[in-house]
């Protein structure tokens, strides 16, 4: 968690003095104008606390904070004012633009205490947000695990889509947003709402490489409507619903607005889902990218390069048989898991979660009759201890 400080003032002599006084106490950066500060925040951020002077040419402190907050809403802002600016500063404080304002000239001890209080406020805000995100993500993970056990043909793809999206995000240098992760977990939810006949037609089309956009568009719209009902997931819903309308051209490394985040997330999700469709047909690398351009003709060169560098799953791993009671989260299935009656439970290639492990361990009825399960040996931490004899 960043605890870096940015100090903004148009007087260079004051900035030099601040560096001497505070440089040994905080990780400090300075900027001599609002424009320079915004550039510094973009290039060197994130900053936990920004302290800015009120009176600066071209862009005053209130104008700067409003613009900076739109780009870095979690940063805590402190404003330094003269007596003549107190009415403006109080207004800025009351409107929530700044955490605290200090009167110039400001005593060093008072300034240090204000910065430390702002750092605590930043830690409180970001910690609560991280906890909320982790709670959302964990709850969604359990939900999709359970759905996969009910509809394995659909939700067995979730992990692969997630992995592809994560690798593309890293290759493109995209900012890490929790909304991207949740969207990839929930991206297939709309398909579960399609009538069974439509769902089967879509899956058949995917296998034959002839699927149309109609089922995809309907599933995306239904997924969006469902997720929009959950508080704070508006952007996640937008990402899912926007998929049919993106053209593959977006590469937005640092989205400045929620709409830009939704566009990038939708591009990432649609690309990952369709690339997964193509790999299920046996297409990889250049062949898959050429086919992908049929539905995403504006696919960016950066995205195509990232797709071309995705690892191809090797089938050389002969695997090892593992007793159901010895299964652990993180193991990867080498074969489909079927009940004794031949009913599909989980598709091969799935990385096990604890939810799925618990379901498999409870599958002990004669009708289900699960046999030892074949696992990729490379995914087992201690294969010599788990191999089924």
What would you say this structure looks like, in words?
This protein is of the alpha/beta class and about 400 residues long. The chain folds into three domains: about 5-125, Rossmann fold, CATH 3.40.50; about 150-310, no CATH class; about 320-385. About 55% of the residues lie in helices and about 10% in strands. It has helices at about 10-20, 35-45, 60-70, 85-95, 110-150, 150-155, 160-170, 180-185, 190-195, 195-210, 215-225, 235-240, 260-280, 285-290, 300-310, 355-360, 385, and strands spanning about 5-10, 30, 50-55, 75-80, 100-105, 320, 335-340, 345, 375. The strands form three sheets. Strands 2-1-3-4-5 form a five-stranded parallel β-sheet, with helices on both faces. The chain has a two-stranded antiparallel sheet with strand order 6-9. Strand 1, helix 1 (about 10-20) and strand 2 form a beta-alpha-beta unit. The radius of gyration is 26 Å and the shape is elongated. The relative contact order is 0.07. The model is unreliable at about 385-389 (pLDDT under 50).
Notable characteristics:
disordered C terminus; Rossmann fold; 389 residues; 53% helix; 17 helices; alpha/beta; two-stranded antiparallel ribbon
H-E order: EHEHEHEHEHHHHHHHHHHHEEEHEH
Would you report the number of β strands?
9
Strand order of the largest sheet: 2-1-3-4-5
Largest sheet: 5 strands, parallel
The termini sit apart by 47 Å
Query: What would the average pLDDT be, to the nearest integer?
Result: 82
The number of helical runs is 17
Rg of Cα set: 26 Å
Label the overall shape. elongated
Task: Please bin the fraction of helical residues.
Answer: 40-55%
Strand content: 5-15%
Supply the helix-strand structural class: alpha/beta
């Amino acid at each position: 968690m960043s605890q870096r400080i940015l100090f903004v003032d148009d007087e260079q002599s004051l900035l030099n003095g601040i560096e001497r006084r505070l440089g040994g106490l905080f990780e400090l950066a300075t900027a001599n104008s609002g424009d320079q500060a915004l550039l510094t925040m973009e290039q060197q951020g994130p900053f936990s606390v920004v302290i800015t002077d009120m009176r600066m040419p071209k862009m005053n402190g209130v104008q700067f904070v409003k613009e900076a907050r739109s780009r870095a809403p979690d940063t805590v802002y402190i404003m330094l004012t003269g007596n003549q600016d107190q009415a403006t500063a109080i207004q800025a404080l009351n409107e929530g633009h700044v955490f605290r304002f200090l009167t110039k000239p400001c005593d060093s001890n008072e300034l240090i205490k204000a910065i430390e209080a702002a750092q605590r406020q930043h830690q409180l805000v970001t910690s609560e947000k991280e906890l909320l995100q982790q709670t959302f993500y964990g709850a969604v993970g359990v939900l999709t695990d359970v759905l996969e056990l009910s509809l394995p043909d659909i939700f067995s793809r979730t992990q692969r889509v997630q992995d592809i999206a994560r690798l593309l995000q890293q290759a493109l240098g995209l900012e890490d947003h929790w909304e991207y992760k949740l969207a990839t977990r929930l991206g297939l939810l709309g398909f579960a709402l399609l009538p069974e006949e439509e769902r089967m037609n879509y899956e058949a089309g995917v296998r034959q490489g002839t699927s149309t956009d109609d089922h995809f568009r309907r599933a995306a719209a239904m997924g969006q409507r469902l997720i929009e009902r959950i508080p704070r997931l508006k952007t996640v819903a937008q990402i899912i619903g926007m998929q049919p309308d993106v053209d593959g051209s977006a590469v937005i490394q640092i989205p400045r607005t929620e709409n830009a985040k939704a566009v990038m997330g939708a591009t990432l999700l649609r690309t990952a889902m369709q690339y997964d469709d193509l790999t299920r047909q046996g297409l990889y690398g250049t062949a898959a990218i050429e086919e992908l351009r049929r539905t995403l003709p504006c696919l960016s060169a950066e995205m195509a390069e990232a797709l071309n560098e995705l690892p191809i799953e090797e089938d050389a791993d002969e695997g090892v048989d593992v007793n159901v009671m010895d299964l652990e989260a993180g193991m990867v299935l080498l074969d489909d898991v079927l009940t004794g009656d031949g009913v599909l439970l989980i598709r091969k290639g799935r990385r096990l979660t604890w939810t799925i492990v618990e379901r498999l361990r409870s599958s002990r009825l004669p009708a289900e009759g699960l046999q030892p399960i074949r696992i990729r040996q490379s995914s087992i931490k201690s294969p010599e201890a788990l191999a089924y004899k």
